[in-house]
Amino acid sequence: MLTVLHRLILPTEGLEQCDAMYVRPVLPECIAEPASQIFLVRAEQGFTFDTFYNAFSVKKWKQTGGISRLAFSLRASGQGEVVLFHRSSAGIVTPVWRKKIKGETCCVEEIPAWHTLSDGLIYFSITATQDCRVEAAYFATSSPMLQVPQLGVVITHFNRQHYVRNSIHRVRQALLPDPAYQDSIHFIIIDNSANLDPADVPGAKVIKNHNYGGSGGFARGLLYLNEQGTFTHCLFMDDDISCEVEAIRRCYAMLAYSADKQIGLAGTLLDDCKPWSVQEKGAAFSDGVFRALHVGEDVRPVENLLKLEQDAGKPVYGGWWFFAFRLDAVSAYPFPFFVRGDDALFGLMNRFNIVTLNGIACFSEHFLSKENAFTRYLGMRASLAIYLMMGEARTLPALKMMGLAFLWCALSCRYQSAHAILLAFQDVNKGPAFWRQNLDFMPLAKRIQKETTCRKDDIYFQSEPFMYMGRPETRLRKYIRLLSLNGHLLPQCCLCKTPVYVGEYTRGLLGLTFRYQHIVYRKYESQDIFEAELDASQFFRLVKAFIKTALVFVLKASALKRSYRKNLPELTGKKFWQRVYRS
């Protein structure tokens, strides 16, 4: 009996699409409902599937340890030829199997070369001499599963009913009717907003929950799965499930054939404005800084696919937009961060062996376009707390991390964000008791004043001189800029009264904003802008408060580190969350 590992897929209606991620050279002609994946190859046409979604990764599937045999199956009709190729990591392409299509063709062919391969990609091409109809193509194995996962897909929801309704509907149509998954994959929605009607998401279990953020929602999901006693694996997902349903099938297969009890399968995060661009494919941690791997890589060129399957660093966690693991590998539950940092610490504490795979991916608005004072508060307090709990926790690197983030915002007149980073520093200084007392983060959020953004039309950005690249500056100008604290010490007569228009994440930002009284910022990859005004008195109030907070941190750094590390097991314990949800 064959187990399907990897199906051919074409773009799915409702998802961000880029044809070159599915097939080359252009999209085949669909002749049925898009969900059916049936397509037509006209006479003299040819298509190749050495792409992000359809090329089969030799190294990653071999690393599971459970696949000793590999087969390729095709169901087609017409006249033509299908050829299976192997592209090595060195870029050498070798045909490994070929078959003529004559009339109705349904074949399952073992791939003998599988035993000799260790890396690279396997993919197929199809060329038609007369019109060919392709109904299905997939890679499968006759090797028995190492285990039959009972997979609980935990989705934390908060006030995004439209997204979760549509996503569950799409999954229910494409996945749940399949007998292979009906009794093996179960969807659990943790409804933090307590306003989702279970009738709107048939096929999913809805659990009303108090809003303790993503940390609390996913912890509640873990508690539920463990209480049932039947689940073996868990998959954390965002509530819009913006991924191909096939990604869930491939995830299930990889879990079923993995001999690694510590496997953590992390989905690649792609940019929904540029679907071919990677935001994160695993992430590393060093000196309190989390660094996304493969940032900005283009998944369209086949040469990049081979590079993407090589770890660019040591990945230590996967984002909870798509992260799967064995339940018996979990020794630590999420830390009560509310959001931001919870997935990172979860990965670090449970010491998962992080695996990423081309073709298992989600789409999201770019991280930088979502950054504001509120998210900077959440991100910086998590980074510092995790550094104290899991990193080397040296005082100077911690001060550097917080200080550089604070100064970058304060010197560029984004005082709301600078104040948010200051609050994050102060809150972490309060020690572990702070986290116990502030599980419900929303009252704290009122302290943070966000930048006021507004949306503009395209013509606005064409008519105003927005700058997205830094300018060369003389050594003298640079010294004056540094000594004047980017203009905050200059008299009013030395400041430019006309606004400067800049992208918020422009390289050389401080040089571009120097000597301007008024700054108009454009959010990353969006039509949103916000405005900032140079205010020396506000700047120095913030700097004074930051210095005071930094001195407090220096004096109590050793005690803080000891306290955090002593309390970490309790704050990430199963019993902690059981008490939370019993109260």
From TrEMBL:
Coiled coil: none annotated. It comes from Acetobacter pomorum. This is Glycosyl transferase. Residues 35-139 form the Galactofuranosyltransferase GlfT2 N-terminal domain. Gene3D superfamilies: 3.90.550.60. The keyword Transferase applies. Keywords: Transferase. It comes from the Bacteria. CDD domains: Glyco_tranf_GTA_type. GO terms for molecular function: transferase activity. It holds the Pfam family Glft2_N. The keyword Transferase applies.
